[in-house]
Amino acid sequence: MQTEYAGLRLADTMAEVKYAEGYPPFVVQNPENAKADGNPFSFFEVIETKTLSGDQKLEDCRSWEYPDDQSKVRIDVEFDAPTKTLNSIFCYSEGSNACPAILGISVGTDEAAILADLGKPSEERIDGITKIMKYNSLNAWFYLTKKKVYMLGLKSDRPVDKAPPCKSGSLSCEPWERDWSKLAISPGAIVTNSGELVKPGRADR
Predict the structure, then answer these.
(1) Hey, is 25 helix, strand or coil?
(2) 3-state DSSP call for residue 59?
(3) Which residue from 32, 78, 174, 194 has the highest number of Cβ atoms inside 10 Å of its Cβ?
(4) Per-domain residue ranges for the chain?
């Protein structure tokens, strides 16, 4: 299971993302904040954060964008609404393969290579000219057009939290080396060595 990508981790807080990436230049307007103007796509409006005013706060926006004009790469992150912790990290590349690879898959990789390396996806669908391939047990998603990857990243359909700290004070340790005295682990939950706690959810198909 993949939980780290592009220098970020699933379950990072908004403060941790800002610390790692800085203040996001853009946010995507939340559906519940969209104006009832009759436009079904109005909630996808991208807003410059410097234009936020009044009672609008960065922390009220669940989707942030970090574009890099020089490399033509954009990192998109999205936070879980109840917990405001990171539940998706994606990289979009325009005309370059500068996005970090996931399991050896990078921008420009063709569909046949993905199937050869990872097998049949848990889910896949075609939306217009885009195919989305999801590997739920790995948290890995790939977006393709003309049978080649143009965007990829991690997204968890199950809640991801931080596990208790290591008893030794180390940043990484085995699950049984953590201090569970104040937190009970649910049956079926997954704990990574780097400290993510993935709660049980729907079964992967």
Answers:
(1) coil
(2) helix
(3) 78
(4) 4-155, 158-205
Can you tell me the distance from the alpha carbon of 202 to that of 200, in angstroms, rounded to the nearest whole number? 7
Provide the total of helices (H) and of strands (E) in the chain, helices listed first. 2, 14
191 in Cβ contact with 175 (< 8 Å): yes
Instruction: Please provide the size of the chain in residues.
Output: 205
Give the tens place of pLDDT for each residue, 104-149: 999 999 999 999 999 999 999 999 999 999 999 899 999 999 999 9
- CA 159-161-162 angle, to 5 degrees, is 165
**One-letter amino acid identity for 35?**
K
Rounded (10°) CA dihedral 104, 111, 198, 1: -30
Question: Which residue's entry shows tokens 């049978």?
Answer: 147
Q: List, in sequence order, every residue forming a beta bridge with 151; answer none if it has no partner.
A: 92, 143
DSSP state of 98: -
pTM for the structure as a whole: 0.72
Q: Which helix (H) or strand (E) holds 16?
A: helix 14-21
